[in-house]
Amino acid sequence: MTRRYDRPGRVVVKLGSSTLTAADGGLDRDVVEAVCAQIAALVGDGVDVVLVSSGAVAAGLRPLGLDRRPEDLGRLQAAASVGQGALVHAYATALARHGLPCGQVLLTPDDVIDRQRYLNARTTVSELLRMGAVPVVNENDTVVTDELRFGDNDRLAALVASMLDARLLVLLSDVEGLHDGDPASGAPVIDVVPDLAALDARHAGPSSSGLGRGGMATKLEAARIATFSAAHCVIARGRRPDVITDVAEGRAVGTWFPPTGKRPDSRRLWLAFAHQPTGRLHVDAGAVRALSQNGASLLAIGVTAAEGDFVAGDAVDLVGPDGRPVARGIVAFDADVVEAMKGRPTDVLVDRFGAEGARPVLHRDQLVLIG
What we know:
Elements: E1 10-15, H1 17-20, H2 29-44, E2 48-53, H3 56-61, H4 73-96, E3 102-107, H5 110-113, H6 115-130, E4 134-139, H7 153-163, E5 168-173, H8 216-228, E6 232-237, H9 243-248, E7 255-257, H10 266-273, E8 279-283, H11 285-294, E9 303-307, E10 315-319, E11 325-330, H12 335-341, H13 346-353, E12 367-369
Parallel strand pairs: 1-2, 1-5, 2-4, 3-4, 5-6, 8-10
Antiparallel strand pairs: 6-7, 8-9, 10-11, 11-12
Helix pairs in contact: 2-4, 7-8
């Protein structure tokens, strides 16, 4: 049987709420047992496995007498608080049957946005793996707010895979893979997606279960992060027997997204994906060439427009004349200053702003190409 890729040495598996939730709304212990048995099989073969698990809110619904996911932040966080303990206990119990310890890692966006905390999180998870434990990672839903969160565990899983230099990201959900249209209409599953940019809106959709925050759009964003980080990504159905071990062996299960190229260095990966951009800078064709071909910094003369209410130190996307993203980086000036500087040569800016006018809008050490 032809395999898509060789078995990787490190795998990140993301399990969605729809897969973990039983028909009565509680945690499906049979799924937990099956997932942990597959993880144990891989660990026994020398593969590092990190589990990024949704389900904390879903696991807290029944103990709190709730029949559906709350919409208000307070009750969501209460459900997560109750459910997180039940969830990690279920994993710890199931993994212990196979002689494996389990380590809980709760992350917030600050843990990847702040460079030192990002490195600390990477060290913690790496040490858990080195000591033979299975890290179980989740967003810390009990403390984050809607304004400051990863948005979904698909993106969190992709960031963890990128952080740890994992060679495979497995996104498990309630669908067989990425369908070429509406699954309800019988649209077939796409076997391989070599170019994410070629997909269109008909391939994305919301969560079908109503239990999670994600959907196909978040999985495609996660696939983009993983493949840019030189990892394979597969979307598959979580309740399929032996799905994790089959995907890890490179068998044709679900939809496969191959890596797009050589892995960038870890700092550039952090710049590209740890920050959510708060604005966009439109740049001219000359700036695109300078950035992509010469590794140059972005000067104000190459900026044609600024969008967003960003401040110095925020992440922004750089967009070329065709509207496509070219790069992402940390901007050196507030939005109103960039607006005043755009399109002007350096000597004019020095006359107006002094020494600050000679600084690039984005320094080449603070940006990464993403186009």
